[in-house]
């Protein structure tokens, strides 16, 4: 079990931010000034173009405006000697890999010496130095002393999900470089149809990375000691393949696009060829993620095209059938020198583990019943956790109190605390051979991955040093490093972003949907298929020709708590928008990150204003009723037209929020379109997984629930009642049309 660290780390208490926290810190004397003049000395074997040299010079120039000048100011010396740094205790049994990432940083009055056993350690030592540099009264300072550092686990991976969108190549490079800054050394990239597979051209989407671009990204990552790792699912989670008529023959069930037939030799060969396409464009890579995530129906198919049931019975279990499938896919990759990382989960039983090849790495841990048996069989494991799951718009870094929810639930402690605790203290650390950690940022809900960095950086830090660093300190260190000295009250920004996102979801109800019913879930196949649900609102009853609006009063009464919570959340939105505006002016780094946050805050705010505006419309309809009952038809029509004007403004504000999000996200994402570059996107939904961004081809999935709401019909009924009343009183008709689905920004 990892040892507990101090209540506050030594460096943070001294005013210095480093993430991950170093293993050993010995401070002495006063802080020392760095520069402004500085010079570089390279020890034997360190090339001028070494990434450590490049990073040191480049960051000092770009981040601090300092240029090297021989023989002046602070001297930074880089030393590379095998065996020069002896790592201390580490959980990982791969001691050589740990030693290659170790470094020692000695800071004196006018010299800084970084010593390492290998290139990775030298690079990490430079990154620590860059993080340590702290401005004070216009000058840069460092703590005097020695840092000796090494990782607890030699693999620290993040999962980057581009299944539902595709970053532009420069943005993917920026993400890889950001990962390296926090000593993350694996970037598992899920592309699905956003890669130009030679063996499966029909599934390639309008915008997709070419093999040459994937290799370029791979090489870029290797330069910064980050492995870009190909990721492909199977046998489940591959609707992006099986939805296409050309590949439907590989389905395990003819009427479901979720899972591939594990006993169809052609299907296995086809999936293997897709893996090979990725590997061929990933020269220099060491790993492959073969995600056997949630293979719910392995061994159940019993039809002319897929007879898995009989095969499973012959082997002895459905888990052994899955193990056979894993072996068939993994073996050719293993022979090419790749470490295959898979998920050894249900339906595998403990009795099935020995059927797996011992060279695969299990990307998860499963508890005391399973983990010791994986160790016994020679299968190493990684600890898995996530910074995002099914949340909409923003991860649950903070939890919205039940007192501010319409639908109370179980309180959460937050992604940072939960994830760090999982990696640092999971009981599997004592029961199996752990060689790494992986932190996933699932994009199934359509979030922008800029929202994941707090979790990526702070949670993977537990794979470097698994001390009991508090979530509060970890987050504060991240804000300092990610945004720079100009960041203002950033913890409050993240709290408000989290709470606003949770209220966005909580503020609506669940209702029936017209989308394709689900084939099944993790428990079973649904017979008949089970209808899916969408979020919805019950709208007020429209008034009749006499303008009686009894439904308006009852709606406001029924929704009084919803409206009060929305009003409270709107006050928080005011605070959030103010903080974002202030930080957009003052932060030193990652300004685009906050621009994405602003676009999200606007989408969340638009929901609040819409709810409150429906309440305002109800009040206006009631005023119209009173005026009509009092024999004041012109006043009645004025109130009706005011309600119609509010409806128009709701649509306009929705369209503005959507436009701004599309514009902002489009700076890092390639377009989500039906056709481009001679390729078409086949819009057919996954019939097991109900992923939000799949619901539209374009970015309008961000306002999907509003587009599905019968708001247009309700407004049209209001307008119809208004015009009938006007005609009966010989007053003019309102001829303006209302198209709720029109996404143009109309006056």
Give the helix/strand layout.
Layout: H1 10-13, E1 24-27, E2 32-34, E3 38-42, H2 51-64, E4 74-80, H3 95-100, E5 103-107, E6 111-116, H4 119-132, E7 134-136, E8 139-142, E9 145-149, E10 155-161, H5 169-181, E11 186-190, H6 211-223, E12 227-233, H7 239-242, H8 265-280, E13 287-291, E14 302-303, E15 306-307, H9 308-315, H10 318-335, E16 339-342, E17 361-362, H11 371-376, E18 381-388, H12 415-425, E19 434-441, H13 453-460, H14 471-483, H15 490-506, E20 509-512, E21 518-520, E22 525-530, E23 533-536, H16 550-558, H17 560-586, H18 591-629, H19 633-665, E24 675-676, E25 679-680, H20 704-708, H21 711-728
Parallel strand pairs: 3-4, 4-6, 10-11, 10-19, 11-12, 12-13, 13-16, 16-17, 18-19
Antiparallel strand pairs: 1-9, 2-8, 5-6, 5-9, 7-8, 14-15, 20-23, 21-22, 24-25
Helix pairs in contact: 2-4, 5-6, 8-10, 9-10, 12-13, 15-17, 15-18, 16-18, 17-18, 18-19, 19-21
Structural account:
With 747 residues, the chain is of the alpha/beta class. It folds into three domains: 21-149, Chitobiase/beta-hexosaminidase domain 2-like (Chitobiase, domain 2, 2-Layer Sandwich); 155-481, Glycosidases (TIM Barrel), CATH 3.20.20; 506-728, no CATH class. The protein contains 21 helices and 25 strands. Strand 24 (675-676) and strand 25 (679-680) form a beta hairpin. The chain is globular, with a radius of gyration of 29 Å. Residues 1-6 have low confidence and may be disordered.
In CATH, the homologous superfamily of the largest domain goes by the name: Glycosidases
| Main sheet summary | 8 strands, parallel
Major β-sheet strand ordering: 17-16-13-12-11-10-19-18
Give the terminus-to-terminus CA distance. 63 Å
Q: Give the uncertain stretches in residue-range form.
A: 1-6
Number of β-strand runs: 25
Proper CATH architecture of the largest domain: Alpha-Beta Barrel
Structural class computed from helices and strand pairing: alpha/beta
State the shape: globular
Fraction in helix: 25-40%
Which band does the percent of strand residues land in? 15-25%
Q: Domains counted in the coordinates: how many?
A: 3
CATH topology of the largest domain: TIM Barrel
Q: Count of helical segments? A: 21
- CATH class of the largest domain, named Alpha Beta
């Amino acid at each position: 079990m990892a040892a507990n660290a101090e209540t506050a780390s030594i460096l943070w208490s001294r005013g210095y931010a480093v993430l991950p926290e170093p293993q050993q810190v010995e401070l002495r004397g006063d802080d020392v000034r760095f520069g402004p003049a500085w010079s570089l000395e390279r020890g034997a074997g360190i090339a001028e173009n070494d990434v450590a040299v490049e990073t040191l010079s480049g960051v000092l120039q770009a981040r601090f405006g300092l240029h090297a000048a021989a023989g002046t100011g602070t001297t930074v010396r880089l030393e590379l000697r095998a065996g020069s740094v002896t790592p201390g205790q580490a959980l990982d049994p791969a001691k050589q890999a740990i030693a290659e990432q170790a470094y020692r940083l000695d800071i004196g009055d006018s010299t800084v010496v970084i010593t390492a056993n290998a290139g990775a350690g030298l690079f990490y030592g430079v990154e620590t130095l860059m993080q340590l540099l702290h401005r004070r009264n216009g000058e840069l300072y460092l703590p005097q002393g020695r840092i000796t550092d090494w990782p607890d686990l030699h693999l620290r991976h993040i999962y980057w999900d581009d299944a539902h969108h595709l970053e532009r190549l420069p943005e993917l490079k920026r993400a890889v470089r950001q990962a390296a800054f926090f000593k993350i050394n694996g970037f598992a990239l899920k592309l699905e149809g956003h890669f130009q597979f030679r063996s499966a051209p029909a599934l390639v989407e309008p915008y997709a990375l070419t093999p040459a671009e994937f290799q370029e990204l791979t090489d870029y990552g290797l330069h910064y000691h980050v492995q870009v790792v190909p990721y492909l699912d199977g046998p489940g989670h591959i609707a992006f393949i099986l939805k296409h008529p050309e590949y439907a023959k590989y389905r395990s069930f003819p009427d479901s696009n979720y899972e591939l037939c594990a006993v169809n030799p052609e299907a296995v060969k086809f999936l293997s060829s897709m893996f090979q396409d990725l590997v061929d464009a990933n020269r220099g890579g060491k790993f492959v993620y073969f995600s056997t995530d949630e293979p719910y129906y392995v061994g159940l198919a019993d039809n002319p095209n897929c007879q898995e049931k009989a095969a499973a019975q012959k082997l002895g279990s459905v888990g052994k059938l899955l193990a056979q499938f894993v072996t068939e896919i993994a073996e050719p990759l293993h022979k090419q020198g790749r470490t295959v990382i898979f998920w050894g989960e249900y339906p595998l039983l403990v009795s099935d583990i020995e059927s797996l090849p011992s060279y695969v790495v299990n990307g998860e841990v499963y508890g005391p019943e399973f983990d010791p048996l994986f160790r016994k069989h020679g299968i190493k494991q990684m600890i898995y956790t996530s910074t995002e799951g099914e949340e909409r718009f923003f991860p649950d870094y903070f939890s919205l109190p039940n007192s501010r929810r319409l639908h109370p639930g179980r309180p959460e402690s937050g992604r940072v605390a939960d994830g760090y605790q999982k990696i640092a203290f999971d009981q599997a650390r004592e029961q199996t051979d752990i060689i790494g950690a992986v932190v996933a940022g699932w994009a199934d809900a359509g979030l922008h991955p800029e929202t994941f960095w707090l979790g990526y950086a702070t949670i993977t830090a537990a794979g470097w040093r698994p001390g009991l660093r508090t979530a509060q300190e970890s987050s504060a260190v991240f804000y300092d490093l990610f945004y720079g000295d100009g960041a203002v009250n950033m913890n409050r920004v993240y709290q408000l972003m989290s709470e606003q996102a949770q209220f966005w979801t909580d503020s609506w109800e669940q209702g029936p949907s017209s989308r394709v019913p689900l084939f099944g879930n993790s428990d079973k196949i649904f017979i008949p298929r089970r209808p899916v649900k969408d979020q919805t609102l019950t709208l007020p009853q429209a008034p009749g020709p006499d303008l009686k609006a009894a439904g308006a009063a009852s709606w406001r009464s029924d929704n009084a708590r919803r409206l009060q919570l929305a009003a409270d959340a709107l006050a928080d939105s005011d605070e959030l928008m103010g903080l974002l505006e202030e930080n957009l002016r003052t932060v030193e780094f990652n300004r685009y990150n906050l621009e994405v946050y602003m676009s999200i805050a606007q989408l969340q705010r638009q929901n609040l204003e819409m709810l409150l505006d429906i309440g305002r419309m109800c009040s206006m309809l009631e005023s119209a009723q009173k005026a009509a009952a009092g024999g004041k038809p012109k006043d009645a029509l004025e109130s009706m037209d005011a309600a119609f004007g509010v409806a128009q403004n709701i649509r306009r504000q929705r369209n503005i929020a959507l436009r701004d999000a599309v514009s902002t996200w489009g700076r890092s994402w390639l377009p989500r379109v039906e056709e481009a570059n001679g390729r078409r996107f086949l819009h057919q939904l996954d019939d097991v997984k109900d992923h939000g961004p799949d619901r539209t081809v374009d970015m309008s999935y961000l306002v999907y629930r509003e587009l599905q709401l019968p708001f247009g019909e309700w407004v049209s009924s209001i307008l119809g009642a208004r015009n009938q009343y006007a005609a009966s009183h010989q007053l003019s008709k309102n001829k303006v049309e209302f198209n709720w689905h029109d996404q143009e920004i109309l006056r």
